[in-house]
Amino acid sequence: SISLLLRDGLEDPLDDTGLVQQQLDQLSTIGRCEYEKTCALLVQLFDQSAQSYQELLQSATASPMDVAVQEGRLTWLVYIIGAVIGGRVSFASTDEQDAMDGELVCRVLQLMNLTDSRLAQAGNEKLELAMLSFFEQFRKIYIGDQVQKSSKLYRRLSEVLGLNDETMVLSVFIGKIITNLKYWGRCEPITSKTLQLLNDLSIGYPFSVRKLVKLSAVQFMLNNHTSEHFSFLGINNQSNLTDMRCRTTFYTALGRLLMVDLGEDEDQYEQFMLPLTAAFETVAQMFSTNTFNEQEAKRTLVGLVRDLRGIAFAFNAKTSFMMLFEWIYPSYMPILQRAIELWYHDPACTTPVLKLMAELVHNRSQRLQFDVSSPNGILLFRETSKMITTYGNRILTLGEVPKDQVYALKLKGISICFSMLKAALSGSYVNFGVFRLYGDDALDNALQTFIKLLLSIPHSDLLDYPKLSQSYYSLLEVLTQDHMNFIASLEPHVIMYILSSISEGLTALDTMVCTGCCSCLDHIVTYLFKQLSRSTKKRSTPLTQESDRFLHIMQQHPEMIQQMLSTVLNIIIFEDCRNQWSMSRPLLGLILLNEKVKSPPCYPSWDVLGCPRVQPPEKQQAMHLCFENLMEGIERNLLTKNRDRFTQNLSAFRREVNDSMKNSTYGVNSNDMMS
C-alpha cells in the first residue's frame, strides 16, 4: 500500500499509533505459530527492500518517491520484526527459533547502521520510530539476567556483526540512544521514545545495569549532560514549555545510573550537579534584579525543576536523597517559592514546580529519615506549607474560570497541592504535635488552605476529574485517620460538604476512590462512636469543644448517617460490589451510630434501604430475619474482633438477601433503592 499512499496522498495508517499497536500485538502471536515460514518470508521481503533501498541511495538519479516507498516498506518490516521477536515465549522457544531471531536482528541492526550514517544529510522519522519499537521488544526478550547468554541469537550476532556478548549489545543500544538525541533532539516523538528506552534500560536487572554503567558512552552522558551535547536540554525560544517533559525521563534514567556507583561520594554527586547548580544560580541572578527577561527565566526554571524531579524520583535511597536535600535546602528553596509567587497564574510554570515539591516530600522507600537531632523534617514541612499557602491563596484570586479551562488553569495545580500535602502528612518524618505545642502555624495554615481550596470546587468536579478525585480522597483519608480533631473543629457547612463528598464518592466507578471513601467514613464514624460512648459514661475528662460540636452537628443531621447507611447497604446488596471488605468496615459503625442518634433507637431493617412498607408480610418477615442474622453475635462496640465477625456475617447476609429477592415475585428495583 505504500506506493498508493504516497502517490495519492492518502492518510498513512502508521499515523494511528493505537491501531498499529493492536495489529502488532496480533502479529506477535500469529507470527510465532509457524515461525520458520514467517521468518523466511520476513527475511525475503526485508532483503529485497533493503537491497533496493541501498541501490537507490547510491544512485545519483534516484527519485525521492522511490526512496520514500522503500523507507515505508522497511518501516513496516522493522515494526513487524520487533513484534514477532516480542512474541517469543521462553518455555516454548527452541534454539532454532532463537537463531531465526538472530537473522532478523542482524538485518535490522545493519539497516540502522546505514540510516544512522546518513542522519547528517537526511532521516526518516517513521523509520526511526519503528527502530525504537524494535529495540524495546529486543530489550524485553534478550537483555537481562534471565536470558541464556549461550542463546543462538547471540552466536549469530557474534558471527555477523562481531557483537560477542551482552555488553557489546548494550553499547549498540546506548550508541543508538546518543545518536538519536544528537540528531533528533528537536523531534519530540523520537526524543521521548528514545529517552523511554534509556529509562527502561536503567530499571533493568542489576547485573545488566552494572554493565551499562561501565560503558564509556554512559559515562560520557553522566559527565556531559548539557545542551552543548544534547540539544533537547537547550532553551529554545521557539519551543513550548510543555515540550520539556522528556527532560524528567532523561534525568530519572541518569539518576538511576549515577546511583549504581555513587555510594557516599559527595564529590562525584557535586560534579554531576554542576550544570543544575549553574542553572539555579542563573535564575537567582535574574530574580535579584528588577528587570529580567521573563520568558528566559521561565524556560530556565521549568527545565531545571523538570530535571530535578527526575533526579529526586530516581534517588530512592536515604544516602543519595539526603545529598539532594542538602543541596537544594535551604540554598535554592526560596527560588521555587518566588516562582510560585510570580507565575501562579501560568500552569506551564507552576505545575512543574509543584510536582517537584510533591516529589521532594514523598517518603518513597523510607528515604526521608533525619537524625534525631535534626530539625529538617519540620523545616521541610514548613516549606511545603508555605508553598501550598502561597499558591492556594493566589490561585483563588483568579475569579471565574471558563469551564473548558478550569482543570488546566486551576484544578490541576490544586490536585498537586492535595497530593503534596498528603505525602507530607503521611511521610512519618514529622511529629505534627509540636506545631501547636510551640505556636507554629505551619500545619494550621496548610490545613486551612486545603479547606479554602476544597470549598472553591463544586462537588461534581471532584468526581469528574480522575486525578483530582484520587488526590482529594487519599488526602481526606490521611486527615480522617490522623487529624480528626481538625476535621471536628470545622464549621458545620464544611463538615456537611466533606460528608456529602464522601457519600457521593461511595458510588464512584473508580474502585480506588470508593475504597478511600470507605476508609474515610470508617475513621469518622469510629471517632463519633467513641465520642458518643465517652459522653454517656461518667468520666472526669470532659469532651473537647471540637468533639462536642461535631457530635452536635451529627445529632442535628441524623439523616446524613441514615443516608450513608442506606447507600452502603444498597451497594453491597444490589451492585457488583468489588470491595465488600472495605464497605463492611464503616457499615458496623454506621449501624451502631444510627441506633444512638435516632430516637427511639432502631436497628437496621428493610426500611433502611428506602423501601416503602408495601412488601407482603412473608417478604417483610424474611428480610427482618436477614437483618437479625446480620447482627447475630455482634456486640455494641467497634473492636477489631467484633468488626471481623460482622464482616463474616455480611457475606452471609448478602447471599440471603439476594436469594430472598430472587424467590420473590414482587422484585425490587435497585435504582429505586438509591433514590
TrEMBL record:
Gene Ontology cellular component list: cytoplasm; nuclear pore
Stored Pfam families: TPR_XPO7
Keywords tagged on the record: Cytoplasm, Nucleus, Protein transport, Transport
Native organism taxonomy: Eukaryota, Metazoa, Chordata, Craniata, Vertebrata
GO terms, molecular function: nuclear export signal receptor activity
Domain Exportin-7/Ran-binding protein 17 TPR repeats residue range list: 5-239
Intracellular or extracellular location(s): Cytoplasm; Nucleus
One GO-annotated biological process of the protein: protein export from nucleus
Keyword Plastid: no
Protein family per UniProt: Belongs to the exportin family.
InterPro entries: ARM-like (IPR011989), ARM-type_fold (IPR016024), TPR_XPO7/RBP17 (IPR057947), XPO4/7-like (IPR044189)
Official protein name in the record: Exportin-7
